[in-house]
What does this fold into?
Amino acid sequence: MTRNFKVSRTFRGDVVFLRLEGYLNNQGGEEVERQFKTEVENGHKKFVLDFCKIAYINSIGISFLVGILETTRKEDLRVCFTSLSGINEELFEMVGLKKDTIVLRSNEEAFEFLSGP
It folds into this structure.
């Protein structure tokens, strides 16, 4: 993990919450992907990635998110992105990430979404 990035992992039932903080670059992206894959290997299938405290996302960080979405499709997982800042939401729109995932305003909305059928 880097000084500029932190991932906090919590659980609510069968949903894994990954709270991201700092700069999502190559080192941050590697850490998110590592924790995500660890939880997939542990049998989890529902994830929330909380971007509330993300200050910056570069192109390498985006590529790690694309990799997570690829895993999501291959493994039949469900992932929601939450709490995007305006600039990050525009970035996700620009690079096409919004069409490939569920983007919600809050973790509570994501939990309700993932709890449904």
